[in-house]
Amino acid sequence: MHRTHVVPDKIRELISPFLASMGLVVWGVELAASGHRQLVRLYLDLAADTPRTPERRGVTIDECARASRHLATLLEMEDLFHDPYVLEVSSPGLGRRFFEPAQLPAYVGQVIEAKLTVPRDGRKRFKGVLTAVEGERVTILVDAAPEAFPLSFDFEEAEKVRLIHAFDAISEGGAGDDASS
């Protein structure tokens, strides 16, 4: 286990039993700086066995608030942060970041963006259709035809991998157009 994973793993361990009782799971934990404070971001998603319905397609604001209050109490008891910190709890959102390769297979066929830690052919950012995930190995079809090419990398070679959400097309007139003018 890398040292950088110790605190996120501990946060995951602390909150997971509470989230399971709500039908939720930890999607990811992100630590960053926020001025002179530590920023702790916790992303929640529906558990695999929680049915998704038109009324329940994701995590609610109330669930995030409950999880935030519970986690804040646990963090104070565990004293993981010796300095002031800011806690944010949310769903992963439409442009969700992937924290582990096991999260990717459900998104095969969709567009993702990967920012690699080491450049390939002079660039670090690649956007394309996710075509395969085999263990730690991720393959995307980068760029548009006819210049498209496959790119494979180990998940650990990426600084960040996120979903590029395709919004439904807006009518040709655009949103808010007034035809009476």
TrEMBL record:
InterPro entries in alphabetical order: Ribosome_maturation_RimP, RimP_C, RimP_C_sf, RimP_N, RimP_N_sf
Record has ATP-binding as a keyword: no
Limits of the Ribosome maturation factor RimP N-terminal domain: 14-94
Family matches, as Gene3D superfamilies: Ribosome maturation factor RimP, C-terminal domain, RimP-like superfamily, N-terminal
GO biological processes: ribosomal small subunit assembly; translation
Compartmental location: Cytoplasm
Domain of life assignment: Bacteria
Keywords: Cytoplasm, Ribosome biogenesis
GO cellular component: cytosol
Similarity comment text for this entry: Belongs to the RimP family.
The protein's name: Ribosome maturation factor RimP
